[in-house]
Every structure is written in structure tokens, then in C-alpha cells.
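Researcher: Next entry in the queue.
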Amino acid sequence: MNSLIELDHVTKAFGGLIAVKELTFQIREGSIVGLIGPNGSGKTTAFNLISGVYRPDKGSVLLAGKKVSGKKSHVMAQLGVARTFQTVRPFSTMNVIENVAVGGLFGRNHSLSVRKANDRAEEILAYVGLTEKSRMPAGALTLAEQRRLELGRALSAQPRFLMLDELMAGLTHSEIAQTLDFLRRLSKERGITLLVIEHVMKAIIQLCESVVVLDHGEKIAEGSPSQVISDEKVIRAYMGEKATRNKSEAPSFGEVDQPPKRDN
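Model: Structure for this entry, 264 residues:
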């Protein structure tokens, strides 16, 4: 299957700080890919480069083989690229259904009427389990509900490619399990390609087919979850040089569950 997203030697600097350096990887259409690394490794910068928040200083971002580097965020949304944010950002004074409808008004079918955007929002709210909260102010939702709202707003834009920035941060074990089940179903039923930033490593292991690891803005590993968590460069990035000399001090990533096989 062809690549949907490709980063080709992408570099982004802020003054003298190189946030991402010569970053290259491809994401196959229909796949679920993890993007991990220690804090400050460049993960969110990579998201911002793909979604159009930043323009690369060097290199190219391609969507379905076409160069999209430097296109604005609203243009990328119209092309089918959507995202959530690490910190939930609901329009707190608007109700839940209005929050979700906003995504539809600025997504792939941005010529929607408000009425049709609201109709789509109702369907999305049912899908993410927030129908009963549709008339509540978004600011009154719990954290778990606000994360579902953030996901619903992204889905209402009808994305081909969805980037999730720490969607499971702050959730309980049962909420994480529910979210993993939902994301697997989302990918299978709607054919959406997912790129996931997550510090809950067990979630990455159970959800993703492949993982890209960043450290100081550079890719240091790429492969299956079981491959990357045993890579010495990855262990060193998370735990330091000492951990690579003493395997007993390597980080515990939890049981390595193989991701479900997919029908391609």
C-alpha cells in the first residue's frame, strides 16, 4: 500500500535551537504509527510541520505523493489532515455539539451549511459516546470527556490522516483501555490513518504497528514496538548511558502485546 504521509529530510530550527533535524519517515495509508521520544525530542514540532503550523526550513512534507510543505493549517485540514492537541482546547462557553460542528465547517467539505455541520456533529457525538452531553457547555465536561470531544471535533473534519497528541494523558487504566479499543475500531471502520504521540508506552505497544523514535530532534529508531523498546539507542535516550550497560535498569515498557493483524 502507498504512503499517505512522507517526511523527507525535514529540518526546523528556532534561532540556534534545531528542533527537528533531517527527519525522514513514511506512513502507510491505513496504518497506526507511534511517534515517541523523551520530552523535548521534537515530537510536537513534527506534528506542527505536518499540520501546517510551521514551514520546514529544509526538506519536504508530502501528502499522497504531493508536496504540501508550508501550506497553512486550514488548507491542510481541507486536504484531510486533522489533529488533537496535548492540552485540550475546547471552546468552553460553547456547547458540545457546537464545538464538534466547528470541525466540520473547516474540514474537507468546508462548504457545509451550519445545519449540515450540526447534523454531522450529532453523528460524531454518537460515535464518540457524547450524545447525552451534546447541550452541555464544553467546559463542564470531565477530562476524559473533553479528550473525546477533542477527538470528535477532529473527526468532524472528515480526515484521511489524524494525529493524536497524548490523547490518553491523565486517563485512568480503564479509560485508556476504552480509548485503545475505540482507536482500533476507528481505524478499521473509517479507514483513517493514525499517527500517535503517547507517553503511555503500554498503549503504544498495544496499538501501533510501527513506531518512530526521536531524540534531540533526530530519528534514532524505527520499527515494530518490540524492536524499538529493545533498541539500545532508545533505552539510552530514556534512561541514560548507564541503562545500556546494565539491562536490569532498562525502562519497563510493560508486556509487549502484538498489535492486531489488519486486513489490507
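Model: Residues 91-159 form one domain.
Researcher: Noted, moving on.
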